[in-house]
Design goal:
Strands 1-2-3-4-5-6-7 form a seven-stranded mixed β-sheet, with no helix packed on it. Strands 12-11-10-9-8-13 form a six-stranded antiparallel β-sheet. The radius of gyration is 21 Å and the shape is globular. The protein starts with a helix and ends with a strand. It is an alpha+beta fold. Helices cover 20% and strands 38% of the residues. The protein is built from five helices and 13 strands.
Length: 218
């Protein structure tokens, strides 16, 4: 009997390790817990069309009547592709290219559907294909954003080791257009404070809209 129990435990451990190996690091980082609400990864889910999404359970303390409870699904780049949340009322969201039926929620009330994002320029796609170069350059993610009604692209870098814990150091962020030319530069923090260039202003930066994460370092 002990041998059988040990064998089952080994199988469960192997299965858990296999699942963990297939879960992107950014997915694991989405686990969070507060005094009222817990957001916890549940499992990867393969849709009928073969795409894999990652399911999270959102649960809140019973005494918090307005706190969220429900389910959120992310793709491998940690974009929200669907959410079905009950708070004060029920609300749902489904990203473009998916349907509520993909998640077994065809009858869910108050569903908002996402719009189709702009196509990715060839030069950005080419850069993302060369993952080794991105990683060697310290790129953590590639993000598609909208600033001043323009679709731009940002290559987010990990901070240099010498300034990783520096609260007074500035951070410079460059955004590129569809031709992969530098469109705007924003600098935040440091002695100079916040500033923008190329005809943009800091309110443009603060009002930017993240459209989707295109690539995440694995």
């Amino acid at each position: 009997m002990k041998t059988y129990i040990c064998f089952c435990c080994i199988l469960l451990l192997i299965a858990h390790m296999a699942i963990a190996q297939n879960v992107p690091a950014c997915i694991t980082a989405l686990n969070k817990k507060s005094s009222l609400t817990n957001t916890q990864f549940v499992k990867p889910l393969t849709l009928k069309d073969g795409r894999t999404v990652f399911q999270f359970k959102v649960s809140s303390a019973a005494q918090c009547m307005d706190c969220p409870n429900g389910t959120i699904y992310y793709d491998s780049n940690c974009n929200v592709v669907a959410s079905f949340i009950m708070g004060r009322t029920a609300s749902g969201y489904v990203a473009y290219g998916y349907t509520a039926g993909d998640f077994g929620k065809s009858q869910y009330p108050n569903i908002r559907y996402g719009k189709k994002n702009d196509s990715i320029p060839a030069c950005i796609s080419k850069a993302m294909l060369n993952e080794d170069s991105l990683i060697n350059a310290g790129v953590k993610k590639v993000v598609q954003v909208r600033i001043k009604n323009k679709t731009l692209y940002y290559f987010e870098h990990a901070p240099a080791k010498e300034i990783a814990n520096c609260k007074d150091c500035s951070t410079s962020m460059q955004y590129y257009n569809n031709n992969c030319d530098k469109e705007a530069t924003f600098t935040v923090g440091g002695i100079a404070g916040a500033k923008a260039s190329e005809g943009y202003t800091m309110p443009d930066y603060y009002n930017r809209q993240v459209l989707q994460i295109l690539w995440n370092a694995r």
